[in-house]
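Folding Problem: From Residues to Backbone Shape
Fields: amino acid sequence; protein backbone structure tokens
RECORD BEGINS BELOW THIS LINE
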Amino acid sequence: MSHPWPALRRIPWHTRRPTRHVSAGLVAVAATLLTGCAQLPGGPPAARPLPDETLPTPVAEALAQARLPAQALGVAALPLGFDAQPWQHRGQVPMQPGSAMKLVTSIVALDRLGGAHAGRTRLLTAAPVQAGVLRGDLVLQGGADPEFGQATLWLMLRELRDQGITRIEGDVLLDRHRWRPARLDIGVPPFDERPESWWNVIPDALAFDLGLQTLDIAADAQAVRARIRPALQGLVVDASRLQLDDRRCSDWSAGWVTPLRETPPEGGARLVLQGSFPRGCARLEDLQAADRDRVIALAFAQTWRELGGQWAGTVREAPLPAPALPPAVTPAAPPLRLLAEHRARPWGEVLRTLNKTSDNTLARMLFLELGVPAMAAQPQASTLDLARQAVQGWVAAQGIAAPGLVVDNGSGLSRSERISPQALAQIVAWAWRSRHAPDLLMSLPVAGVDGTLRNRLGASPASGQARLKTGTLRNVRALAGVAYDERGRPWALAAIVNADDGIDAGRAVLDVLVDRIARGDLGPR
């Protein structure tokens, strides 16, 4: 049961620490202090800015050692459920957050869609089945299923075989119209010089293996060998143009050149590797080896054949749904019936992979789902624009002051996304007090333990305690989430470094900052 006065809400279970007790009166005091920095769900607007604080000496020294100006750093630290002074340094300045923006997507999605929201993939048809023959087209309908791939396709087609279907007479129609436009990737300039890489996948609602194939590449002293794993008949890897070099295996990508994706006259697809590769090196790399429709076509044909089925049709895009017209104008189409379905794990569980590994494709899929509820009411708007409106509207509805907030694709893989550290910390504070806090905390990397923080802060008291989302771009280093001080008290933290030069050293600055929180030292010394 929720209380009518947010300041008197019961302290969430996850805030309890051994031998630590917080009275209801102290919660009320803390809520009053945090009116301008960490609004409780349903509480009054948070508009009062915090004063800038002097940087702790170790943080200032880390900036000097990194040759980064103090203006490159923005920080906001807000106490969660206890009486302490909020702290910030340039916290109101909009900054580029990198993948820390995934926190915003995760929190808004948990609140707007719920942790049980799940994607699905369906096989549908309007055609009859007669004597084991499907006498018409088969529709493969995408429903933002992040786990649809070769394994789930096999299970779905196995279900068709178990229903007695042995031959498909029609075509396979790919229905990815859950989002508008159906394929955001067509005609979009690449984000960087590695458009084939996993971090650059632009999702669609029919994301087969998240748009990726695994390249197994290995070299001995004389030659390079490469193949796709698992093998996909018709998808050929040509390594004849890849030269050997003497780099260390860890530097393999220095000689890599974007592969060519070709469509041979005989059909199928060919990936032509270019550049150079180290002798004695072996790598498994996920990349976009071929056009996604072609990959689905090859996978469908191979899987259906392996299951003993027959099919001589083609794979093509399903037509757009017909516009709403009077029945006298629009001929009635035969109803589709469900043959097989795969339902993904709820997004509340998928968040663990999304945030622990900082998966851009998963983040962008979830972000686009935020736009789906408004699509019927705004038939001319793109799903991406509707998702942006949803996030902006959610932030405003919580009374969180976020001047300069720019929402692009929700993953942080963007040159335009901006958010102030104070606004980001307020969003984390809101989530901490929400019913979705366990789902969010479970998904965040733990310092020195796992995810993108497994090799950081291992010698700090923050190790095993701080749960923080990282952010990394060529000019960005960021951390945002929950850190604990020496008394086991939680703080909502957002810390961002933006710099054109020396950004690699920005990571050490952020680690020093988290360490100072863990040691209970946010003031100058």
